[in-house]
Structure formats: structure tokens, C-alpha cells
Amino acid sequence: MINSNNLILASQSPRRKYLLEQAGLTFKIIPSNLDESSIPISLPNNYVKKLAIAKAKDIADNYPQEWIIGADTIVLLNNKILGKPDSRSKAREMLKGLSGKTHQVLTGYAILCKAKQHQFAAVAITDVQFKNLSKNEIEWYIHTKEPFDKAGAYAIQGLGTFLVKKINGSYTNVVGLPVCEIIEHLLKENVIQINPCQKER
Q: What is the mean pLDDT of residues 130-155?
């Protein structure tokens, strides 16, 4: 793919950076400094979308000519938001709750260009089914320290891959960004183009 190098990812997440790089995009990273507590908690779908828009707008104000991608991901179990565990006991509680059940991963994503007065936002939802976890499996996983900076206390792209029995929906959404949907919108708006292969002679 080719683009005009006017794409900014408003996130410092290494997972989102990796996903967009794997998709062949070139972009700058300028993390948003949004105070997330300034966005009132509402229905999960609305909440992640509002956060994504606010993060993108935070950067767009200083880069009006650029196309900004903002995103926010949450994990839902029985309509309750699971954040990042701040202790071993909290991680243990989350993993026990997820064991043998299906939960949802929601990512709100926004694509903005202030100069063009363009704003698009949507939410991607993926169902994730966990296997039944034994006590030893939970304790081993907590011991790896992987759960502690991850919403829902696991990373599907890391060691936590063994926890997941089945998913229904976008895999990259669970990692942190629905890449297919974002690429489709960027192509539609001609922000990026696909460089056709030349025919062999």
C-alpha cells in the first residue's frame, strides 16, 4: 500500500503500532494526552466511541491537515467493564470470572481530518470464549506478569493465546484495533491507495 504520509496514530500502544505496520501502512505516532476520566462512563458502545473520538480530536487540534486514528478498547463480561488489574488478586478474580465463559471485546475507533471536516467513528465487537481454566493455569499465567497491563487481564497475541478456545469476529480487534475496518475506510476516503502489481513480461 502507499499513502501520503499524513497519517497519525493517536496511541502509544505497541500492539496498535504493530498491527498497522503489519498492514503495510506508514504513519506517525503522537499519543493523546486525554484525561479519560473527563469522559463520563455510559453504555459501553457509546463510551468507547466517545473515547476514540476524544483521543483523535486531542491530536487533530494541533495537526488539522493530518488524518488521525484514535481508538479505545474495553473488555466486557456480563455487561461489566473489566479494566487492567492492579494486583495479583484482581488478575486472579478476572481470570476466574472469564474461565469457561464468553465475553466481548469492544474497540471504538475514530478517523478524523479537521481540515476536511471529516469525522468517522464506529465500534467493533468480538465475542471471545475462554476454556475452563484450572487453578494451576491461572496461577502460572499470573506469574508471567502478562495480565497486568491488559484490559481483562490477558493478551490474546501473547502467552494468553492458550486461554482462548474460540472467537467470533475480528481477531485484530481483540489485540486492540480492527484493522480491516480501518483500512476499508482509509481506502474509501482515498487516504491510502493500493499500488497495483505490474504484470510480468
A: 95
For residue 28, count CB atoms less than 10 angstroms from its CB and return exposed for 0-12, middle for 13-18, buried for 19 or more: middle
Instruction: Say which DSSP state 12 is in.
Output: -
Catalytic residues: 72
pLDDT score for 177: 96
Q: For residue 98, give the 3-state DSSP assignment.
A: helix
Residue 31 amino acid letter: P
Domain that holds residue 89: 2-193
pTM: 0.90
**In whole angstroms, what is the distance from residue 75 CA to residue 98 CA?**
10
CATH number at residue 63: 3.90.950.10
Question: Does 198 fall in a domain?
Answer: no
Amino acid identity of residue 70, one-letter, is: G
Count how many domains the chain has. Answer: 1
- Report the 10 Å Cβ neighbour count for 55: 27
